[in-house]
Amino acid sequence: MIQIGYKSCEYDCCVYVECLDDGSFIFLLLYVDDMLIAVKFLDDVVGLKALLSQEFDMKDLGVAKKILGMEIHRDRSSKKLWLSKQGYVEKVLYRFGMSSAKPVSTPLANHFKLSSN
Predict the structure, then answer these.
(1) Within the chain, which residues score under 50 in pLDDT?
(2) pTM above 0.85, yes or no
């Protein structure tokens, strides 16, 4: 990835970034044999896939619904994206015989305030 102009993210060595001429970015997340590409324009995905397929045997699985155990949910009309680990949590609860356990809230101190910032 570095040889074709991508920079490795300093915070996560599995994330590669390229800044395009229009100021947008291509984000490529690579973990063993799983890859996720995030871009503003679909044509950039097509170009990157063509370039990578010249070097590697690849299988295009289409729009990502899951990666590394995280479920990906999109609402394109409102431009929102959600990531969920619900399936993973349910598997862990089942594995340890806690799938029928009752949920409880996690208390926070009254002075602790959360904000969207």
Answers:
(1) none
(2) no
